[in-house]
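Much of the work behind modern protein science is quiet bookkeeping, done one molecule at a time. Below is the pair of lines this work produces for a single protein:

***
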Amino acid sequence: MPRYAPNKMSPEVKRRYFELIRQGLSGSAASSQVGVSLSCGSLWFIDAGSVDFVDRPISRRYLTQDDRIEIADGLAAGESVKAIAARIGKSYQSVYREISRNRKPNGRYQPWYAHGQAHQRRLRTRERRLALDKALRDVVAGKLDKHWSPAQISRWLRRRWSKRRSWHVCAETIYEAVYRGLIAAQDSLTLRTGRTYRHKRGRGRTREGALKQSTNMKPISQRPAVVETRTRIGHWEGDLIIGSGQRSAIATLVERKSRLTVLVPIRGGRTAQIVGDALIQAFAILPKALRGTLTWDQGNEMFHHERIERETGLRIYFADPHSPWQRGTNENTNGLLRQYFPKGTDLGLITDERLREVSIELNDRPRECLNDRTPYQLMARWKRQLQTT
């Protein structure tokens, strides 16, 4: 076979060949499946830098093999880097870096070689900056002893040693060094939080948002406009308040117009099944006219929201991530409840009778937003109006 023959095969054939190789097939088996000779496949294999890993799905923020093929095809066609970047949905700076980092020693950009280089670079382990540099470690530890925050230390290092680039570490690097024990804690307040581990954010949330298991949740933007006006009874806001050790919880329900508060005990954990059962039981004893809508935050404890809707007749809507003001009435009520149940309280020890006492006190308290009437008074007025209609 002539030496130039391998380069006359279509990119689709080459792509399939390397897909098979990265699935673990041998070179001869992959060549046979795509319909080329073993020598042809061997030339591809050598040109790609001897592929020796199994390709697995990675984060979307990384370039894929197909992205690199598009880059190579664009360069061969004489396209500009900005045009290539726009086509694959990446910034042109990322494409410039990709070409610079992963091209072959002769300057040619070969997509399968580049993909292999990127894979090897991801696997390369590096020593942590603060583990290597004792002087930097001592400087950071000294500032932590003075109760500086990692963010303050990071900014100060850049100002104080503007030309010493190796000392320009971000706040997250300092946090990680403390959590890993690279910087010994002098006392429990080395960090202002007093923690010695990375604190989990949110209740079952990921960086990309919560309730990823459920694609049918209705966002607050779809909630009827009448709910926002507070002119009708029966529209609720809800949330959980969490007890000590993240092991106990109480569901708080607040009616938007009257500010009526209902406290729902959550016993035996706070899984979606348990929370769903508790909310269904709580709403089942309310008149049907009071079961309009419920607005909750995007916590995974509401994974069973469709079941709750079916059992109660409610329509459940979810506030946007990190937008507590969209459930402002409930957030304010949770603040009032901390007067009765301070943070650190084991809510699992709170009896149902005590919850009723607290809810009675809150609902019998005059509110300025209600012209100094109480939630109970507004609910009594609503019941009278309902009876006369």
Remarks:
- The longest strand covers residues 235-242.
- The chain has three domains: 5-123, 126-199, 218-388.
